[in-house]
Amino acid sequence: MRSGPREISTPFRPIPLDVPEGMKPNEFFNSTENLNDLEHNNGLLRNPENLLLYRKALGHSTTFDTSIIYNTSKTILNPLGRPVRRTQVPDAVKNVWNRMNQIIIDYMLETFPDPNETLVLAGEASLDATWSLTSPGVPSIRMLHNHFIVFDMAQLKNAKPADPENPNLTDGGQHSLFQAYIREVYQEFFTFLDLKILKPIDDHSATLPLTGYPQGLPSWEVQGGCDALKDSHFWREYDLILKGFIDFYRTFFTQVSTRNAPIPKETWFTEQVERNLLFNNDFLAAAKKVREQCIVDAQYANAIRWQPAFKQLIYRNHEGKLIVTISQNSIGNAITELLGVVVKRTPDAAAYEQQEPLLIERLLEVRRRLIEADLGEGIKTAHWAAT
Questions:
Q1: Structural domain boundaries, residue 255
Q2: Contact call for residues 5 and 169 (beta carbons, < 8 A)
Q3: Among 127, 125, 269, which residue's Cα sits nearest to residue 191?
């Protein structure tokens, strides 16, 4: 079977919400005003740490699809002051969030044990409003959330090929700044990290044969598989990768913005940035190319995310191994597209309702396990009870 990205159609039941005049639908669904619907109509579990587990009403998959959002909308009213990445979450909250991640991933792998039958992934994407504020669809919710998704592999195999030139498939070399200019520098930069559980792997092991994605990204095998996620040290290493990425991103775009700029103030690994980036001719030459294009091309400059924007994933490869990868997010693509899966959401209540009972059954079982582990209390909605 020919390898390449796939485009699948996923039905959803139209949400009975009126979008305020003057707002685009995606702006409203990303807004705090939509949180009441998210919690009261689709909420599954909440806890004192303000972590909310919910069903994805506009989902990626009807096999399994849920998210956790760090709902700070009522405790931090300034949208620009809310945590939008793991490194900004208080340790006590992150400890609970990591345990929730581990239990949900464990459930997915237990319920869907065969990598030939399902694609399992979990991860998060930056929600920084790093687009130009005049651009349509700028995320206004600005609250960290992650995704837990299972795709049926037969559906992916039978799906039509996605357009490889789709700009949302940003991890191909023709779209991504890092891949186009400094792929080797980017991958090499992570080698200084002191990792014991995460082991660097090559592109062949990381790439899904069906889609050919992810493409050329730094990737690590989780030694010990799912059991390693029960070790708090794994999550510290997961954070180290994110910190390394943010240092790389900030340093690169600081140099794009200002030639020969000093090391960014919020850098975690200052020595490595100085030695491996600011004294690397390829890195600085790439920044020069991007800077010069920004000066003469207004559309190009407006499309750049000047602040760190990323996607970080844990997924199961074709050999059944858990893989961690991270990508810069230059266009704002969905997290599934990092693995070459383009989701076209289709309003079709009848088709969704056929698959809804089994989906809810799985979501409620995940909720039961979280409640049992003292990770929250159930939420009652029109679709399910609180317990």
A1: 6-378
A2: yes
A3: 269
| CA angle 20–22–27, rounded 5-degree value | 75
Q: Hey, CA dihedral for 337, 198, 105, 151, is it positive or negative?
A: positive
- For residue 1, being part of any structural domain is answered with no
Nearest to 201 by CA among 304, 319, 36: 319
Per-residue pLDDT of 81-132, as tens digits, reads: 888 889 999 999 999 999 999 999 999 999 999 999 999 999 998 776 565 5
Residue 73 domain-assigned?
yes
Does this model's pTM top 0.70? yes
Q: Residue 276: helix, strand or coil by DSSP?
A: helix
Please classify residue 106 by burial: count the beta carbons closer than 10 Å to its beta carbon, then call 0-12 exposed, 13-18 middle and 19+ buried. middle
Count of structural domains, the chain: 1
56 to 10, 12, 60, 249, 363: CA distances (angstroms): 12, 10, 8, 30, 11
Closest-CA residue to 287 (of 302, 296, 297, 277): 277
**Other C-beta atoms within 10 Å of 145: how many?**
18
pLDDT at position 361: 97
Tokens at residue 130, please? 């790093």
Is 387 inside any structural domain? no
Domain for residue 384, yes or no? no
CA dihedral over 150, 154, 156, 157, signed as positive or negative: positive
6-12 and 341-347 strand pairing: parallel
